[in-house]
Amino acid sequence: MSQATKVTVLGAGALGAAMATRLAETGHQVRLWNRTPGKARRVAERTAGITAVEGLGDAVSGAAVVITVLRDGQAVAAVMSDAVTLLGDRAVWVQASTVGPQSAGELAALAREHGVAHLDAPVSGSTDPARHGKLVWIVAGPDDVLARARPVLDDLGSSVLHVGTGVEGSAVKLAVNAWMTASTVVMSDVLALCDALGVDHSTLVETLDAGSLRMPYELQKIDAMDDHLYTPGFAVQLALKDIDLAAATATTPSPVFHVVQDRLNATVAAGHGDDDLAAVDYVRNPPPPAA
C-alpha cells in the first residue's frame, strides 16, 4: 500500500465504484459522489472506508486527489465547472473519464484557468482490474503533478504510462477503446465462422493461446459469449459512445467503425445497452429459451 491519501471519486458507476472500493481497501480516505446520490450510498454501504457525500463542495473539500470517472466530456465539464473552484491549492485533478482529445483539451483549459493541477489520465482496464489494482494508467501531464498523484495511481494500477504533457492520454485511450471494441465484434463473427466450419471454439482458443496471436482480452470474451454471461465490465452503451467519438475524430472515414457502430446499435436495441461488450454476440447467438 502507498501512503494514505484523502481521495474523492466523482462518479459511482461501475468503474468509479470499483476504484473507490480498491482505494478504501488500500487504506485511503475515500469520499464518493454521484449525480444520483443513491448510487454512491449503495457503494459506501458495502465497503468500510468510503463515505458517500451528496454535496459537491463537501466531496472535494480537502481532497489531495480528485478523480473524475463520468460518462463523457459533457458530464465532466458540467460537474467540474463548479467543483474546480472548490479544490484546495495542492489538490490534483485526475481526469480519468474517456472523453477524447478535444474535450480533454477543454477540460485541461478549465483547470489552467483556475490554477488547478491536472492530469489527463484515462485507464486501460475495467471493473475487475480496478478492484485488484491492475489498471493501466495512460497519463499526460507535468512530472511534478504526476508525482503528487502517484501514490493513488499506484494503488489502482499495475503500471503508469506517462505519454505526454498535454492531452495525449485521451488520444491513446480513444485508440485503445476503438481497437478493443472492434476486435470484440470481430471475435463474435469469427465464432460464427467457426460454427460454419465445424471448428470447436475450444480449439480456436487453444490455437490462439499457443502462439503470438494470443489476445487475453478476446479469449476471455469467447467464454463470456459462449456462456451468455454479460455482467459488465465495459458496457455496450459506453463502447458505442467511444466508437462514435472515434468515428467522428478520424480524418478518413472508416468502414470498420461504421460496421461496429451498427452492431453496437443493434445490441442496444436488443436490450443489452447496460451489459458487457460481449453482448454484441447476442445478436448473432441468442441463448436458448428457458426450459
Structure explained in plain terms:
The chain has 291 residues and is α/β, with parallel strands linked by helices. It folds into 2 domains: 6-165, NAD(P)-binding Rossmann-like Domain (Rossmann fold, 3-Layer(aba) Sandwich), CATH 3.40.50.720; 171-284, N-(1-d-carboxylethyl)-l-norvaline Dehydrogenase, domain 2. It is 55% helix and 14% strand. It contains 13 helices and 9 strands. The protein has helices at 14-25, 37-46, 56-60, 73-83, 100-113, 127-131, 143-156, 168-197, 201-209, 216-227, 236-249, 255-272, 280-284; strands at 6-10, 29-33, 50-52, 65-68, 92-95, 117-120, 123-124, 135-140, 157-164. Strands 3-2-1-4-5-6 form a 6-stranded parallel β-sheet, sandwiched between helices. Strands 7-8-9 form a 3-stranded mixed β-sheet. Strand 5, helix 5 and strand 6 (117-120) form a beta-alpha-beta unit. Helix 4 packs parallel to helix 5 (100-113) and helix 11 (236-249) runs antiparallel to helix 12. The protein is globular and about 65 Å long. The mean pLDDT is 95.
